Amino acid sequence: MPKQPKHQQTNATHNMPQFQRMQYAFAGWIRKPDPNQTPQNIERRRMDIYRELFFNNVAGFLENAFPVAARTLGQKVWQGLVQGFFEQHRATSPYFREIPQEFMAWLMESPSVFEASPPWLLELLHYEWLELYLSTLDAPWPEVENAAVTAEKPVALSPFFMMAAYRWPVQTISLEHQPTIMPTIPTLLAVYRTKAHKMRFMQLTPKAALLLEALQQNPLFTLRQAAQKAHELAGEHEHEKQAFSLAEFADLFADLQQRDIFLGTAKLS
Length: 269
Known about the structure:
Blueprint lengths: L5 H9 L3 H14 L12 H22 L1 H7 L1 H14 L10 H10 L2 H6 L4 H16 L7 E3 L8 E3 L3 E6 L20 E7 L5 E5 L2 H12 L5 H12 L15 H9 L3 E5 L3
Antiparallel strand pairs: 1-6, 2-6, 3-4, 4-5
């Protein structure tokens, strides 16, 4: 959401009822304390307690959402980012669970902060957010006709998996491994939750990613139809269609079943 010029904010606040002006002043001080005065001359000790409570809540939530990024950047750099977010960002959502998205939005909207951060940071944050999103997603497991997966019938897919393409190998980034050169080949990942509620990921080949994309976009497709669609998405010529033969995906299909991504033959209503 675009920020209003300061004079417009001041005029808008001036036209508000007294209690709302007090709320804005209180929130502004919580974000960035004025060492010389407090709203309505509230005791400084009390305001410091309020600020610490608010900041620690937001900081704790972000660290729980992005543990790898926090450890990798180190406490000083990470705390600086969290402090900047706390002071500068005006959230558009009232829900605590959406703070991670707000944090990523603030980072993208803050050129000076973004440019000073590691080039892989935003992608790492997205990868960690994806894990958080799927770990808390509330959705029913689809019914299956049977556990077998065949080429001629639609496949029941897990609702708890998503794919993402990254320029950086986000799944390998850690305190000990912080890449400085962007690979020439993107990293394709499937992030998923198992039936045992464990978060996992698997790296995909381009062909596997295209086939899964075809299945996600066309829930009634059989595996054979998905392979044909993947061929079209790849932009290959008609005489090269055998490059997407089902035989080459046999091991992949078995692996996807073991990972609870393929659940069996879909039960059609």
